[in-house]
Automatic annotation (TrEMBL):
Organism from which the protein derives: Rhodococcus oxybenzonivorans
Gene3D superfamilies: 2,3-Dihydroxybiphenyl 1,2-Dioxygenase, domain 1
Annotated ranges, domain VOC: 5-119, 143-264
Needed co-factor(s): Fe(2+)
GO molecular function annotation: dioxygenase activity; ferrous iron binding
Keywords for this protein: Aromatic hydrocarbons catabolism, Dioxygenase, Iron, Metal-binding, Oxidoreductase, Repeat
Keyword match Metal-binding: yes
NCBIfam families on file: 23dbph12diox
Name of this chain's protein: Biphenyl-2,3-diol 1,2-dioxygenase
Amino acid sequence: MSVQRLGYMGFEVSDVQAWRSFTTEKLGAMEAAGDDNSARFRTDSRSWRLSVEKGASDDISFAGFEVDNAEALHAIGERLESQGIKVTAEGSELAADRGVLGLISCSDPMGTRVEIYYGATELFEEPFVSPTGVGSFLTGDQGLGHYVMAVPDIDAAMEFYVEGLGLHLSDIIDWTLPGDVKAKLHFLHCNGRHHSLAIVGLPQTKKLHHFMLELERMDDVGFAYDKFDADQSVVMTLGRHTNDHMLSFYGATPSGFAVEYGWGARQVEPGWSVVRYDKISMWGHKFVGSH
Ligand SMILES: Cc1cccc(O)c1O
Ligand SMILES: [Fe+2]
């Protein structure tokens, strides 16, 4: 039994209004609800996919992984507890806030809140309409997208996400960053998306390195690239990754971590073999400026 897909993410941000503008005007997500201290955004038929709440950390505050029914939720909760992980059966109030039928929560070894739920809310009666004309984000069984976290202890993180949540290793990249900094990236999948989560042994202040949204049209990546380029907020140029073959760029968010905006990734297929790489990209993905 494993989690089936990354369903939603929450960020704690110092400037909610900046995120409201960023997420709608640059990413093309649709605001679902919000006030001065919080906002929710849609990228498809679901009632929400991204949450921002006012706070000082400017970092990830929670990730929500989806299972398909109550039995699966119970099974994964039991497995986590059998591994000594403290699991909280969340009450109806938080379940209602998340718009789900059932929800448990725990913390990963880095102290990041992980929610596991079933029964998310679909809003087919209120079609997703992108404020920037984005055609559609690639979600569905592949979930929201992916995120990459910097962790101090790869083994502890792998044990939690592989043994605990049931994700599977797709591949490893030995990344040499500028300044000859070496980082080993572990990519983990729980459905056809090549990775819903990657973890990297990198000493960085923020837990979150970036989150990624995948588009169904390549031109939507290009249109967004021009928006980030117009205010010099491209962090890494367009490029194509070695492992998932995603064509993407990285842009700065108002919180200092990056967003990866991509198209055209290949999926993990049955019989997938774990391999390794020395490069993150076939071409491109060059760091820009001081970022
Ligand atoms: C750094 C990096 C390498 C390969 C795929 C990715 O999505 C990524 O962010
Ligand atoms: Fe990525």
